Amino acid sequence: MKANGKNNRNNDYSDRARAERRLGWMLAGPAFIIMLAVTLYPILQAFFDSLYAFRLTAPDEREFILLQNYVTILSDPVWWRDLWTTVLITIVTVAVELVLGFALALVMHRALKAVRGWLRTAILVPYGIITVVSAYAWFYAFDISSGYVNSWFDWVPGIDQDLNWFAQASTALPVIMASEIWKTTPFISLLLLAGLAQVPDELTEAAKVDGATWWEQMRKVIIPNMKAAIMVAVLFRALDAFRIFDNVFIMTNGQYGTEVLSLLAYRTSITRLEIGLGSAVSVLLFVCVLLISFVAIKVFKVDLAGTTGGKR
Amino acid sequence: MKSTGREKLWWTIISIAVLIYALFPVASIFATSFKSAGDLTNGNFLPSPGAATLDNYEQILVGDAQELFLTALWNSIGISLIATAIAVVLATLCAYAIARLEFPGKKVILTTALAVSIFPVISIVTPLFNLWRNIGLYDTWIGLIIPYLSLTLPISIWTLAAFFRQIPWELEQAAQVDGATTWQAFRKAIVPLAAPGVFTTAIIAFFIAWNDFVYGISLTSTEAARPVPAALAFFTGASQFESPTGAISAAAIIVTIPVVLLVLLFQRQIVSGLTQGAVKG
């Protein structure tokens, strides 16, 4: 598989290979085992719990009910409403972030030396800020009592002093999405910046010499060469957005039809202590995430191993 | 590249737009943190002229809410640092093995790391909530450090593995040929190349642990282990009847300052760390 030009004799080589194997697993093993312990075990436990009718407030009434919890959830309109809200948030935020993140990446890539450092620092600020803080910043800005948005934008049709942004999904969701976009665009933008740097300069130069316009260079040279980076950025952000929790918890706590799946799982198990039902929601959420990754990898052929330097 | 005046103007405008975009929400909560209780509803961005006050900071640093906030801050710092340290040490060993040694199962390890990093946190929380309560880890530091590893470990492994792969390991052999011992060769040729990657990974892992909210609100119930983000969400302020907008804003600013400082100091490393992995081959 790999020829690194070592001139080992054969039996000598196999001894060394065995020692290398052992060392490899000794070094990598602890991390591997911990990762399994902190995720595989809980999800198996969740699956096990999900087969029971089990409330923490009535532990003696614990009863094995097979898939009844799943039937209950999947036949409940709340699940479908929350799923739809989550999907909507995922699609909108990822789409906006891709465009905005690409623009920011281009700015950082092309900016004059004097401002480049400043721009990068500024763009990193949202990345570093706690999501809860960002959620409060947006919440207070739009909030009907402490906000200034209503008085700044009262000339816009539909916005006036009495508009309570968080009292209905149609106005609360855009604010939630905006805060999510603000907070996570830097991440996508840095991945895209890395992708941009991968595009060979000669290709862009050649296209320029051939008289390609800016748009043609983008479409024919730059974007195709960044395809892998774009795919990875989109997949990661999509999975992340699908698990959205903090922003919604702070701004509306899932009221007025803004509940997302993570919040449903939290509400069921931690707030209402319905461990069985909550575990089933957790398992379903996990299945959704698996499905998204599976589809992304198969259909869009995202090569995750390749983009992080799979070549040796 | 020569830049004409027109170009400079354009870049100035673009830069200002980017700066406003990136900093406005921070400025917004910063301004709110200086509003007095009566001034919070003034509908303006800034506190009313002459009414700016440090009351909110006083309240959380030396006043009624001091206990609540400072304990949470201490919890956050301690728990995040420990989780980061454990993750970075383990990930460094693991990534070294992946980049440098030939053994079966590398792909399995990287795939596992990837799978763990896309795992919905909430799916882990429900079973942990129950288990932690049974074995006494609920509302303790360790009870948060362990699940935090599910956040910090995978990204550390991926970042470091990508980073270590770019290191020309032949340097080590070259140094040995030149007469250095194995350890000298490793220390002189490899450590200086690897250190920035490890450092960067630590910062990124710390950001992620510092940012956690779901574990923080689900696996704690008192000040014993509740980290800042969770404390902010459950903060009721001095009065049960007034919403603690000002105090929360002040607390938010205080926990944002160290992060912004880290970003300012190490932006070059953070960006190069995040990008290096994907760039050079």
Automatic annotation (TrEMBL), chain B:
Superkingdom: Bacteria
Name of this chain's protein: Multiple sugar transport system permease protein
Keywords: Cell membrane, Membrane, Sugar transport, Transmembrane, Transmembrane helix, Transport
CDD domains tied to this protein: TM_PBP2 (cd06261)
Signal sequence region: none
Organism whose genome encodes this protein: Arthrobacter pigmenti
PANTHER family from the UniProt entry: INNER MEMBRANE ABC TRANSPORTER PERMEASE PROTEIN YCJP (PTHR32243:SF18), MALTOSE TRANSPORT SYSTEM PERMEASE-RELATED (PTHR32243)
Keyword Transit peptide on entry: no
Residue ranges of the TM segments: 9-31, 77-99, 108-129, 141-164, 189-210, 247-266
Any one of the GO CC terms: plasma membrane
Protein localization: Cell membrane
Membership in a protein family: Belongs to the binding-protein-dependent transport system permease family.
Ranges for domain ABC transmembrane type-1: 73-266
Bilayer topology term: Multi-pass membrane protein
GO biological process: transmembrane transport
tRNA processing listed as a keyword: no
